[in-house]
């Protein structure tokens, strides 16, 4: 007599961090002035200067949104994160990247983060990470203005993908008596105007009328936000804790991605 097999037991549900003890992950935002990271199992965000080593003589391996010293970046990451990772196991890593960084930036960044022994490296445009941090509605075009210490970037997202982007090598560290806040505001307006002029679909206009998201350390300056609102003639929404928005958005994506079965096996890579 043959007995029919019983119902198959349901697969165990993959736990989210920090309860998932078998998984490790890193969300990383490499800025020209500050590096911010979130690691699985930790509540806070690591926020430190982007320098090869602290003290006199330390160099800046990331400048104006470009990794100019990959070995130096690797040494910095090892110093900051090497001891914070489990001895065994390889983390899933999500890295924010400038919208115009391109293949060259991602290749250099991958070389630098290899020091953390990731089993998979996912990259996400900084603007999309900012949008994820605030649960922005990505079913409509979205304009993201990111004013950093050394770089200001304006990005148009359509269905969550980058469809246009502009940047200028100008940031908050450049502000002084000869470079007032109006200079950055004027640069942002010029970039948005160029996007409007070249957009034949009216998506940029739609995004602008809905209101731009403002992130980066520059968003903490009321003089900048006031000028942008007036000169863009459109609403500007400063995201909460704008200086850490990108890494928080990357952390959200990380927590969702780590449950994907294809990314829990070592050796995988994805963009």
Automatic annotation (TrEMBL):
PANTHER family: CELL SHAPE-DETERMINING PROTEIN MREB. This is Rod shape-determining protein. Its main location: cytoplasm. GO terms for cellular component: cytoplasm. InterPro entries: ATPase_NBD, MreB_MamK-like. It is found in: Cytoplasm. It comes from Streptomyces sp. SID12501. Keywords: ATP-binding, Cytoplasm, Nucleotide-binding. One of its GO terms (molecular function) is ATP binding.
């Amino acid at each position: 007599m043959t007995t029919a097999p019983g119902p198959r037991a349901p697969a165990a549900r993959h736990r989210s961090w920090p309860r998932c003890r078998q998984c490790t992950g890193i969300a990383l935002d490499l800025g020209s002035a500050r590096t911010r990271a979130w690691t699985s199992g930790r509540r806070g965000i690591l926020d430190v200067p982007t320098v090869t080593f602290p003290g006199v003589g330390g160099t800046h391996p990331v400048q104006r949104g470009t990794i100019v010293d990959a070995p130096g970046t690797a040494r910095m990451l090892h110093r900051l994160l090497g001891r914070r990772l489990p001895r065994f196991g390889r983390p899933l890593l999500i890295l924010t990247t400038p919208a115009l960084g391109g293949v060259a930036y991602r290749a250099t960044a991958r070389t630098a983060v290899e020091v953390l022994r990731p089993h998979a490296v996912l990259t996400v445009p900084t603007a999309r990470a900012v949008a994820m941090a605030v649960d922005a509605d990505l079913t409509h075009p979205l304009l993201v203005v990111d004013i950093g210490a050394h770089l200001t970037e304006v990005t148009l997202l359509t269905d969550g993908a980058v469809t246009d982007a502009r940047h200028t090598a100008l940031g908050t560290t450049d502000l002084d008596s000869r470079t007032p806040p109006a200079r950055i505001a004027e640069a942002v307006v010029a970039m948005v105007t160029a996007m409007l002029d070249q957009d034949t679909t009216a998506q940029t206009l739609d995004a602008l009328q809905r209101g731009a998201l403002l992130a980066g350390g520059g968003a903490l300056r009321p003089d900048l936000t006031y000028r942008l609102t007036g000169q863009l003639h459109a609403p500007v929404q400063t995201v909460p804790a704008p200086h850490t928005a990108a890494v928080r958005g990357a952390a959200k994506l990380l927590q969702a991605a780590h449950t994907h079965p294809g990314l829990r096996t070592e050796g995988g890579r994805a963009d």
